[in-house]
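SAMPLE LOG
Freezer: B-3
Tube label: C17
Construct: single chain, 98 aa
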Amino acid sequence: MLDQLNEHFAIDGHLRFAQHASGLVEGLVDTAHCRGRFFLLGAHVAAFQPLPQTHPVLFMSQQAVYEIGKPIRGGVPICFPWFGAHKSDADAPSHGLV
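STRUCTURE (predicted):
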């Protein structure tokens, strides 16, 4: 899966996908303007650091649980265009398509 993600979506020197210590897949962003990290599970932004700041302005608690099948608590979940169950389509994914 990582090879496919990197082949199709990676941007040399700016975006790559890796396996987090928990086994979850994370995207790592590194540009001239910022650094960041997001998880595919729950489309979850876990870290953001504008440069040249020396510390992240968005980060996860050290108590966060990274486990397949469990929601990640903390950070910013990306939910679009709806949050929760779809109102008219029970088969649609929770929290939208993003």
